[in-house]
Amino acid sequence: MKSTAFASYRKFTALLALVAGVSWAVPVAAAAAKLPDLTSVLGELRKGGYVIYFRHAPTEVEGPGDEGSDLAKCETQRNLTPEGRRQSTQTGNAFRTLRIPVGTVTSSRVCRCTDTANLAFGHFTVSDDVYVSVGADPAETRRLTKALRRMLSTTPAKGTNAVIVSHMSNLHEAAGIWPKPEGVAYVFRPIANGDFEAIAMVLPEDWVKVAALKSQGKSR
Known about the structure:
By secondary structure, the chain is α/β, with parallel strands linked by helices. The chain has eight helices and six strands, in the order H-H-H-E-H-E-H-E-H-E-H-E-E-H. It has helices at residues 3-20, 25-32, 38-47, 82-97, 111-121, 138-152, 168-175, 206-215; strands spanning 51-55, 102-107, 125-126, 161-166, 185-191, 195-202. Strands 3-2-4-1-5-6 form a six-stranded mixed β-sheet. The protein is globular.
């Protein structure tokens, strides 16, 4: 996206939050800057009941953008790097080592997201509710924001965690959080009245590090 288009997009999202009177954006974003890490929530994740939002794994710096790409042809899109594919596979292995139960996996239909989901978890369901929001018109942006907030506030099936694999802008619009870097995950706890709270941020490499400690008998 060109810088002028991105600047307009940023102005629109700020205006949208102001007009909607979204009181959650500032406190959630502020809290996200000092969230606990994986080791602090591992015991809870093993019990299930949380929603884990992944930004897709690392992608190619150069290559086609989303504008004009063919969703049926991955070669026309910005795709995962070899490191991104390796990272996704290792994350999935770490989930199994750490005994974190995963139920539903919902992915944007863009190939960098479906590849992340498939390599990590081996299954996923594509949903247009988590399709990339950058460049969408105002009505569609509002729809995507409402849909993602609903997903983040929905309690997963008993004994499982729900996984979402999507984009940076979507989480910012729904929760006031810019998920950086690529591959980062945020853990959300659904709470009453259709709301949610962010309880942890997990950097891409942390899944593997904590799993390695467990394998060595050093984690609790």
